[in-house]
Amino acid sequence: MKFSTVLTGALASLAAAQTPAPYTDPKSGITFNTLQQSSGFFFGLALPANDTSNTDFIATIGGKGTGWSGVSLGGGMTNKLLIVAWPNAQAAVSSFRKVANYSPPPVAAGTFAQLPIANGTYVNATHWTYTFLCSKCIQSDGTTFKASDTAAGIGFAWNANAPAQKTDPAAGVRQHTAQGIAAFDLSKAKSDKFATWKAYAAPKVASAFSR
Ligand code: HEM
Ligand SMILES: *[C@@H]1O[C@H](CO)[C@@H](O)[C@H](O)[C@H]1NC(C)=O
Ligand SMILES: *[C@@H]1O[C@H](CO)[C@@H](O)[C@H](O)[C@H]1NC(C)=O
Ligand SMILES: *[C@@H]1O[C@H](CO)[C@@H](O)[C@H](O)[C@H]1NC(C)=O
């Protein structure tokens, strides 16, 4: 009892990473290996089973309130592929970022892309949730984890303050008030249902005209 009280106090200032665990979003039905923090921040990953040449994943990211949540796909902040997201009314606004030092990261350009999954993107009474297919997001240049990895260090960061220009995906964000790196067991993110879930993000309109 006494020990756990002391431990809780010591960890409070470090944004101690909880252990990611499987979580199924009831709105999309997709299961993610998900890191959840007491602030409300969460980040979940879904990957295909047994595909070492895979470059894609499905992610869910969110938080409480209207601030931003971010992750580093390579663990550390610098020279890694970052994703930031925040809510704007009922929608989510997000972008890729990259920076060489500990300073505000500008938008990163590349072949990677985010394709939103509609029923996994919502705001409820307490949280905002953004779910998307991250296409070509697993890179081989050291800026992200690799498809062959069994475990990955995923960086996380958040600030409860919304960006000033919250309709603009390239908006400047204020420095995080908490950050860290969490160990993700990627085997717990892998699913045979990945291909089905991935199709939730496919453009629906194009097929109506392709017959
Ligand atoms: C907006 C301006 C930002 C500034 C000035 C900034 C600055 C910093 C600094 C100084 C550290 C080291 C903290 C420490 O060791 O005590 C750090 C760590 C970190 N930052 Fe940022 N940051 C910013 C934005 C971001 C964003 C947008 C993300 C993610 C999307 C992010 C992710 C991280 C992560 C994961 C760490 C911990 C791992 C590491 O130290 O590399 N940062 N940041
Ligand atoms: C989410 O939307 C997809 C279609 O885009 C649908 O197939 C799936 O069943 C929906 N999830 C739930 C839980 O209704
Ligand atoms: C709101 O969404 C969050 C994140 O998806 C979830 O954890 C929470 O249970 C939801 N709350 C309600 C009342 O559905
Ligand atoms: C993945 O590999 C495991 C173990 O070899 C096997 O049981 C499973 O059926 C495979 N899944 C797919 C989708 O190939």
Radius of gyration: 17 Å
CATH architecture: Sandwich
Question: Given the C-alpha coordinates, what overall shape results?
Answer: globular
Order of helices and strands: HEEEEEEEEEEEEEHH
**What percent of residues adopt helix (DSSP H or I)?**
under 10%
Strand-pairing-aware structural class: mainly beta
Average pLDDT works out at 90
Question: Can you put this structure into words, describing what you see?
Answer:
- There is one protein chain.
- This protein has helices at 2-11, 194-198, 205-208; strands at residues 21-24, 31-36, 42-48, 57-64, 68-72, 82-88, 91-97, 113-116, 122-123, 127-135, 151-159, 178-185, 190-191.
- It is mainly β and 211 residues long.
- The protein has one domain: Sandwich (Immunoglobulin-like).
- The strands form 2 sheets. Strands 1, 2, 3, 4, 8, 9, 10 and 13 form an 8-stranded mixed β-sheet that branches.
- The chain binds protoporphyrin IX containing FE (HEM) and 2-acetamido-2-deoxy-beta-D-glucopyranose (3 copies).
- One 2-acetamido-2-deoxy-beta-D-glucopyranose binds next to strand 10.
